[in-house]
Specification:
The protein has no helices and 6 strands.
Amino acid sequence: MKDPNGWRHMSTAPRNGSRILATIRPSEQGAGAVDLIYWSNGDHGSEGGWRSSDSKPGMVIEYAEPELKCWMPLPEADLESLTMPGAWEGDDEGELNGSGI
């Protein structure tokens, strides 16, 4: 495998509930896009399927298998390159958002 974090065929995607990135095929509803999805086992006897991580009870966004082109694991964070900004060192909080007038 050339790139262990690159795009992969959907048949190899994990169906264990872990979140992955997927390329959604373009359709009459819009251009192709990337979404954060996971496999969900069916509720109350229904079949399992791919759901967007934006799904909420009563508002499930589900993708049919043909809608998904490929997948990749979530990239790992490079913790060494992450930095927190320094604390603000001004004297008056009014300086942050103007004078308040």
